[in-house]
Amino acid sequence: MAARPKITAEMRSDLRKSHTKAIRREGLIPATVYGSKIEGSVSVKVPLAELTEAVKEQGANVIIDLSLKEDGKDRTMPVMLHELQRDPRTRKVLHVDFRSIALDVKIHATVPVHLEGTAIGVTEEGGMIDQLHSELTVSALPTDIPTAITLDVSGLRVGDGIRIGDIKLDKAELVGQEDEPVVLCRLKPLMAAAEGEEAGEEGAEAAAQEGEATAESGESSGE
After folding, report:
1. Would you state the pLDDT for residue 191?
2. Exposure string over 96-114, b if 16+ CB within 10 A, otherwise e
3. 8-state DSSP, 213
4. Where in the chain is the domain with CATH 2.170.120.20?
5. Which residues of the chain have pLDDT under 50?
6. Going by DSSP bridges, is the β-strand pair 127-131/28-35 parallel, antiparallel, or unpaired?
7. DSSP codes joined into one string, 145-194
8. Is the CATH number 2.170.120.20 carried by domain 108-193?
9. How far apart are CA 62 and CA 65, in angstroms?
């Protein structure tokens, strides 16, 4: 298991918008810490580069040892990212919410699903993979949450699929849909996929023509 990254947070008492912009120019990001080990919430600022590196190396569910000085005392606590706010245009990180956690208590977390391999149904039968779910929710101890759920699709033929109930995890449990016949991904004929797209386009065109006919009818009535 990779070592937990450690980030030092500085207390942030000035919550004015002008100050928030100033600390971003310094390479810091405003953040809020809350959870079982925090009374209420605490406003802090953390180095953006260190946070970015931690997420890059260990994923969005990375556990960070957050060090902060409060009331003249240094304290370190394990935290996870709860929410990452980004600028909708530039995608730059604007603010982050940290949730303090207990390492011996299970939590729910969203985990990305990655498909690996090239399906036989693609190379030999002219099909295509249709992935219906790109992430799943799991329950596990914080240290047992997988970075990603990776599924091998190389053996799939046209008509085959992988159901969520078929997925087995070592130390985590799927939440919500594990007992339901929900298809995570399927391999369908390329022709069927093309026909589906064509039907969608034809439906949109028909709706547009119907709208034009209705408009023309309204104008005739007005005359």
Report:
1. 60
2. bbbbbbeeeeeeebebebe
3. H
4. 108-193
5. 192-194, 196, 199-200, 206-208, 211-223
6. unpaired
7. --S-EEEE-TT--TT-EEEGGG---SS-EE-SSTTS--EEEEEEEHHHHH
8. yes
9. 10
